[in-house]
């Protein structure tokens, strides 16, 4: 009877989530190839205008890394009709906020305005696409901004370069081997014409998706979209290069010395499949089970119970072509990196050998239900998810249905996928240690 009640409660919860979270949308494509997605939400007088371009760090020349992230900054410099330095002022003076972000796979720009400023948001994004001013003063200015960002967030930040070192060791052929921040030497060496050519190739309607989400009149929105975006030249279809990596069959061992730390860390990293695959979603569950928060298996065992570590954390880079699952541990004296690695491996062997308990399985499902709700709890999240599912997954309706995929994963699949990907001979072990060069301290 108790199991029946639990099953009924879970079914009702899932049904409630499905109905409450249903995101309605309309999509179409302009003659120039720009894909448009509209989502009407009358719950608040606000609107998001956003554009995602299918260009990220993986689309860069290996001798010119950092270009996609550079353009995240550069395209706020100004346009033919928005003077240099006026972009942010125009947004804030009209009650809005804006931002942008770059990954290995795409670049995303957005504004949030009061709904009566929808036309302004559309005009500004069309200006960014059609009339950006890409000149030497803008390039020089943003070059200095990005150098300071790299110093602050990476070079002078404790443990700031650990993901960069993981990527460098995990990939040989694929551009995922470098980070979006790129190389300052490459940016310094680039000529203005190279930046202009990069923009011309990638920041075009055929390589973009426009999302409008919020309190909108659909017919009026379509009229303005055609007015501001319809005449923009389509550009060429971007032909994506395909990069493949040979399977990792032998443990990769590496060491990195960080002058900003006093406590070493051990990092294990496993290459995983594209985020579009079912196995990637199973690995999401495994990651949450092993290391998702303070109630996870690794944290409870190594930090709380045995007090062997100051911290255990895990990060999954879910990417279009490959993913990477990483676990990081900081030992507490007198324990060593080797001690932590042994404990981490024991928990992975358990999940490869035994089925996780029904209780833990239900906890995972509840966790992912909660994440699903939170992901679409505001307009900004909905707009970015609509763009992401269209551009990177090729299925916009995953914004509504992806949770069903997670619910369909069985405990047996969790065990089998752990056995398939999380093996000692398929990983990197990175010892991330304090620098021995006293001059750097």
TrEMBL record:
Q: Where is the Peptidase M16 N-terminal domain?
A: 36-174
Signal peptide extent: 1-20
Q: Which Pfam families match?
A: Peptidase_M16, Peptidase_M16_C
Q: Which GO terms describe its biological process?
A: proteolysis
Q: Which UniProt keywords apply?
A: Hydrolase, Metalloprotease, Protease, Signal, Zinc
- Gene Ontology MF: a single term: metal ion binding
Pinpoint the Peptidase M16 C-terminal domain residues.
Answer: 192-367
- Family under the similarity heading: Belongs to the peptidase M16 family.
Matching PANTHER family = NARDILYSIN (PTHR43690), PROTEIN YHJJ (PTHR43690:SF17)
Protein name (record): Insulinase family protein
Origin species: Flavobacterium nackdongense
């Amino acid at each position: 009877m108790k199991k029946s009640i639990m099953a009924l409660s879970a079914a009702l919860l899932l049904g409630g989530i499905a109905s409450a979270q249903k995101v309605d949308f309309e999509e179409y494509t302009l003659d120039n190839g720009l894909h448009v997605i509209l989502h009407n939400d009358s719950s608040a007088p606000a609107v998001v205008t956003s554009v995602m371009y299918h260009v990220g760090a993986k689309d860069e020349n290996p001798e010119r890394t950092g270009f996609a992230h550079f353009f995240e900054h550069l395209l706020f410099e100004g346009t033919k009709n928005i003077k240099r330095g006026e972009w942010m002022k125009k947004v804030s003076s009209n009650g809005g906020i804006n931002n942008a972000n770059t990954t290995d796979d795409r670049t995303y720009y957005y504004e949030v305005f009061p709904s009566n400023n929808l036309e302004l948001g559309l005009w500004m994004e069309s200006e960014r696409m059609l009339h950006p001013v890409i000149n030497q003063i803008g390039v020089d200015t943003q070059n200095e901004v990005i150098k300071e960002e790299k110093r602050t967030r990476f070079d002078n930040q404790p443990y700031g370069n650990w993901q960069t070192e993981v990527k460098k060791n995990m990939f040989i052929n694929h551009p995922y081997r470098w980070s979006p921040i790129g190389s300052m030497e490459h940016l310094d060496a680039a000529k203005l014409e190279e930046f202009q050519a990069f923009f011309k190739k990638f920041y075009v309607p055929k390589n973009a998706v426009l999302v409008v989400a919020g309190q909108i009149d659909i017919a009026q929105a379509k009229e303005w979209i055609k007015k501001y975006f319809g005449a923009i030249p389509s550009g060429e279809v971007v032909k994506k290069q395909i990069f493949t990596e040979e399977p990792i069959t032998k443990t990769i061992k590496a060491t990195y010395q960080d002058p900003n730390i006093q406590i070493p860390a051990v990092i294990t990293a496993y290459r995983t499949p594209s985020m579009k695959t079912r196995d990637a979603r199973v690995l999401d569950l495994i990651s949450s089970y092993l290391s998702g928060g303070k109630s996870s298996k690794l944290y409870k065992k190594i930090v709380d119970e045995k007090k062997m570590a100051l911290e255990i954390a895990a990060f999954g880079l879910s990417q279009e072509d490959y993913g990477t699952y990483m676990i990081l541990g900081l030992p507490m004296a007198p324990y060593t990196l080797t001690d932590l690695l042994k404990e981490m491996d024991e928990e992975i062997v358990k999940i490869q050998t035994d089925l996780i308990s029904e209780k833990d399985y239900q906890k995972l499902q509840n966790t992912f239900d909660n994440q699903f709700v939170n992901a679409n709890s505001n307009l900004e999240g909905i707009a970015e998810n609509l763009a992401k599912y269209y551009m990177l997954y090729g299925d916009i309706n995953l914004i509504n249905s992806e949770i069903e995929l997670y619910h369909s994963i069985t405990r047996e699949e969790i065990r089998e996928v752990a056995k398939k990907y999380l093996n000692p001979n398929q990983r990197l072990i990175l010892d991330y240690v304090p620098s021995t060069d006293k001059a750097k301290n």
